[in-house]
Give the backbone structure.
Amino acid sequence: MKSAQVAAPLGAAPRERTSEGVRSRNVAQRVAELRWGGNAAAAPRCGEARGAGNLIVQVGLWPDASGRVQRARWRATTCASLMAYADLACELLESGVAPAALDAHALQAGLPGVHPLHLDRADLIVRAVRAACESKAETQTQGRSS
């Protein structure tokens, strides 16, 4: 991801913008301004991943007829790094990054300031996105109605 500086409010440090148009923000900045959290289970495609320590994340995708993600939302247990990675992933997906192209290394590179012991949270997000892509809309609808 290439980046360029973006104008910031007077007195604030300039923010970086990646080639996908996604602002580069650290964990604290992302968590203070979460934008893609929501009811992931309501999506036509929803995937879940679980990790150690009761970490759970759901990612919901609303693809168009061509498969491009029009809307993406996440829901997760309370872990700042997990939430920040999920928010970044949804932003990337909505900006045009294909779900198959999303990987843990891209998420880690796009989110500075993650504690080394929490880098594995990026893998959970990718697993949830993959699970969402593999889910069937009919199964998700039937699962919600029962």
